[in-house]
Amino acid sequence: MATVPATPRRSIWQRIPVIHQFQQSVGLQRGMLVGGLVLTGIFVLTAAFASLLAPYGFSQLKDASGAFDAQQPPSAKHLLGTTVGGYDVLSRVIWGSQTAILVIVVSIVLSIFAGVLLGLVSGYIGGWLDRVLVVVCDAIYAFPTLLLAIVMSIVISGGQSNLLGGIFSAAISITVVFIPQYFRVVRAETVRIKSEAFVESAKVLGASRGRIMFRHILRNATRTLPLIFTLNASEAILTLAGLGFLGFGIEPTSAAEWGYDLNKAISDVTSGIWWTSVFPGVAIVLVVLGITLVGESLNDLADPRLRTRRRAIGIPTMGTESIVPGGSPSALGIGAVARIDEPEARS
Amino acid sequence: MTSTAPEVLTLPEPGKPGVRAQRGGGLGRYILVRFLLIIPTVFILVTLVFLLMRTIGDPITASVGGRLSPQALEARIHAAGYDRPPFVQYIEYLGQIFTGNFGRTLSDNRPISEVLVTYGGATLELAFYALIVAFIVGIPLGMLAAYLRDKWPDAVLRVLAILFYATPVFFAGLLLKLIFGVWLGVLPIAGRGTTTTELQMQLLPNKTGIYLIDALQIGDPAVIGDVLAHAVLPGIALGLLTAGVFLRLVRTNVIGTLSADYIDAARSRGVSEFRLVRKHAYKPALIPIITVIGLQIALLLSGAVLTETTLEWKGLGFMLAQYLSARDYVAVQGIVALLAVIVALSNFIVDVIAALIDPRVRY
Fold it and tell me: What are φ and ψ of residue A159, in 5° steps?
């Protein structure tokens, strides 16, 4: 529509999710947000420039001077040593970030599309469709994530596959687990917004059902999605690693995957070979830590009860609470915490 | 005389709350409704697992296809009834589950219910140890973080909580194994007991499968010590994951309750800030934790599969991983269906406990 947009209250720059929260944050909260952003940034950059950073290919077993020895401790030639299969650990760790990021992106894009669409339609149309979807999603939601992912992975790939197949089967397995989370959040918001005055007005003006859903409701129902997004990103990595650890990952010749490498390192640990397990494990921990720090900070900043306020530092909590204007921000915040804490609590 | 009119008008009023109490309130009614809700949940999950597992064809081809001649394969499929229409198989499957019969495993031809009984106890025991670790570590640290809110120890504790959560249980297991088992050599790194212990367990007449109880039955301090020593690493590996969740939850909720009016009232009476956290804000903050324990059961089961595989703790998760690598999807389906029932039941129990503690939940 060619309408003149209302004067924005904040500049576009400030409305980019993370930037706004960064300016809102203060003290330790800012420290945690920055720490998380730095770790996440390193992860993304490593994945992007894996081919430049990695000394060898992820499935490379020999170079000009001959085949790599298996289970070599860290040395100048292999900075982090070699695995039982003769792969270079450092290269596997670096290439692994690429697999991880691909799986995150594919799974989250798929689950946002499916979950948001289902939640929107279910919440807006209601009726028996809504009831069935809610019961089904609640049932899936209560189920152990990893088990569901295992079943999905068996179905999709029969348990083993090449790079693309492996990434997609892992991503789709994770997607199925995530859909209920997006569904619940978007549906709850849709049900709430549906009864707002502006939706009524749109109906009276004769707007079509689709237009109301996608233009009026969707744009207002997606506020909390960035939070779920970050939390799901870390959960996706853990699920991928879990699948890989149980042997449902991606073949080592197709791509590097941290969970698979850890599985192969179980027997190494018993004989004191630490480098094959410690480095891929630390990679998982750091990436999940970084993304979760970002998510956690965003969550706190969205909740007035948890946000540290610039002007309120040193004043007891009772003082800060009375500053909060009206009930609307805290209503959003409390709802956000309740919803965010749940999905996360079950990785 | 005029006073009678208002009296008549007010008569229905006392009746109203009574009617409402009968309709909406009542713990018994809540429990009943909540219990009936288990049925669709279990039904949906079991159906979902059945449908998904059947989309890949029959389990016998998946398990031994390629190793048998086509005729032999055909015969085995026919004998197991996998050539009948899927709907018939589905109805039969539902009937079997209803009677507690989960079929027989393909790889070692054992009744799945027997596998569940034999190894379920171990998983239960592991979950119990993990919850103890989670309570001991998570709740005090969460209260401490709330008490020292926005100071540096709070930041350290929060990062620690995220670290607990960010560390995959199998990596935590491998690290603990490496440090305490291999480098320091102080703790056993695999299994649930030494061979001697395992033998004594086998000879026990009425064994429960829960080693701690069995060890107490034997009554030998050496055996009890051995069982507990074997439980330390798996318990910590799985427990720290949950401890991280508890820590964050306690912190958030204590901070939330600290801003309640009754806390302000207590504060104005001069109650110390530490006592406020420990005595006043702590208990209401526990209610959400009880609810979250329900969700933790699912997380614990996921984690148990990985922990058991890492530390060779022979429970359901360990067996699940074994059957997965053997491509025995009948066994996988059985174990997954049982775990679905366990999750649904434990969520029910947790909801009932939450309703007992907090009447508001009953609505």
Answer: 100, -10
List the structure tokens of B26: 């009542």
Would you call B259 and A318 a contact, using CB atoms and an 8 Å cutoff?
A: yes
Query: Within 10 Å of residue B215's Cβ, how many Cβ atoms?
Result: 23
What distance in Å separates the CA atoms of residue A232 and residue A340, rounded to the nearest whole number? 10
For residues A212 and A259, is the Cβ–Cβ distance under 8 A? Answer: no
Residue A313, pLDDT score: 44
DSSP A268: H
- Using an 8 Å Cβ cutoff, are B211 and B122 in contact? yes
- Rounded to an integer, what distance in angstroms lies between the CA atom of residue B86 and that of residue A66? 55
Looking at chain A from residue 185 to 244, which residues have their Cβ under 8 Å from any Cβ of chain B? Answer: 234, 238, 241-242
Q: Compare CB distances from A270 to B182, B245, B324 and report the shortest one's residue.
A: B182
Given A32, A135, A266, which is nearest B44 (Cβ)?
Answer: A135
pLDDT tens per residue across span A221-242: 777 777 778 778 888 888 888 8
- pLDDT number for residue B22: 45
CA proximity to B294, closest of A339, A344, A142, A340: A142
Residue A82 pairs with which residues in a beta bridge? Answer: A88
Rounded to whole angstroms, the Cα distance separating A321 from A316 reads 9
Using pLDDT thresholds of 50, 70 and 90, give the confidence band for residue A163: low
Instruction: List the domains of chain B with CATH numbers.
Output: 32-98 (no CATH), 113-362 (1.10.3720.10)
Residue of A nearest to B167 (CA): A285
Q: A296 to chain B, minimum CA–CA distance in Å?
A: 9
- Mode of pairing for the β-strands spanning A62-63 and A66-67: antiparallel
Q: What percent of chain A has pLDDT over 90?
A: 4
- ipTM of predicted complex: 0.78
Identify the weakest region by mean pLDDT among A53-62, A265-274, B16-25: B16-25
**Amino acid making up residue A39:** L
- What pLDDT does residue A235 have? 83
